[in-house]
Amino acid sequence: MRRITIVEDELSIAEMLRLNLELESFEVSVFHNGGEAIRNLETLTSSDLVILDVMLPEKTGFEILTEIRKISQVPAIILSAKGSTHDRIHGLKLGANDYLPKPFDLEELLLRIHNLLPDKETKNPNMSIGSKTVNIETFEVTSLESNTVEELSKREIELLQLFFEKSGQVVSRDEILDRLWGKDVFPTSRTIDNYILAFRKIFEKDPKNPVFFHSIRGVGYKFTP
Ligand code: CA
């Protein structure tokens, strides 16, 4: 079951959201206090989606989102009475995926939630690279030729997904860093290079002459399926 975490201090809104999301078959966690949400950050980052109010006791929704984005790209919707253009831009810049001013329309919110959630039931979890198949849910790479199974890390899977989305295009280092590490962490370029070297070892017949994972000097990387 997919889980949504709500941080909202107005009890009536929090309960209304909980009931309606449960009717939509979501499991729902609720925090009524910003500080409490940050102390339980793991609950938020392990959710499938988070809904954040902005004006909260102790910590604002913006502060919570900043903490989340240091370690996670979980889809986040801000729901706030602070609905000015300035506030919305601020929220989106911090990494919110959507921003709905209060009062909001429930049907619209539900539609926006569904838009942000990948449709797990119908999505094929397999990606093919050469003679190997990557399962993005089990993190396993299986080889048709040698019948072997290798396991990738979550970050390797995320990087592969990014390459797949951008097949044939150059993906810059900044884009990779933003998407995988968040804005406040700065791994060195070498870190990404090491991921590419690992991918070549796994997927390329001849890692020295790659056909899938290319380095574009000074710019970034390109994946050619
Ligand atoms: Ca509030």
Provide an overview of this structure.
This protein has a five-stranded parallel sheet with strand order 2-1-3-4-5, sandwiched between helices. Strands 6-7-8-9 form a four-stranded antiparallel sheet, with no helix packed on it. Strands 10-12-11 form a three-stranded antiparallel sheet. It is an alpha/beta fold and 225 residues long. It is built from nine helices and twelve strands. Bound molecules: calcium ion (CA). The site of calcium ion has 5 residues, from loops.
Descriptive labels:
225 residues; alpha/beta; Rossmann fold; Arc Repressor Mutant, subunit A; 4-stranded antiparallel sheet; 12 strands; 22% strand; elongated; binds calcium ion
Main beta-sheet strand count, sense and barrel state: 5 strands, parallel
Q: Which parts are unreliable, with pLDDT below 50 for 5 consecutive residues or more?
A: none
Q: Give the SSE order as H and E letters.
A: EHEHHEHEHEHEEEEHEHHEE
Number of self-contained structural domains: 2
Number of helices: 9
CATH class term of the largest domain: Alpha Beta
Oligomer: single chain
- Fraction of residues in H or I helices: 40-55%
CATH homologous superfamily assignment of the largest domain = Response regulator
Topology record:
Blueprint: E1 3-7, H1 11-23, E2 27-31, H2 34-39, H3 41-45, E3 49-52, H4 61-71, E4 76-80, H5 85-93, E5 98-101, H6 106-116, E6 126-129, E7 132-135, E8 140-143, E9 149-151, H7 154-165, E10 170-172, H8 173-181, H9 189-203, E11 213-216, E12 220-223
Parallel strand pairs: 1-2, 1-3, 3-4, 4-5
Antiparallel strand pairs: 6-7, 7-8, 8-9, 10-12, 11-12
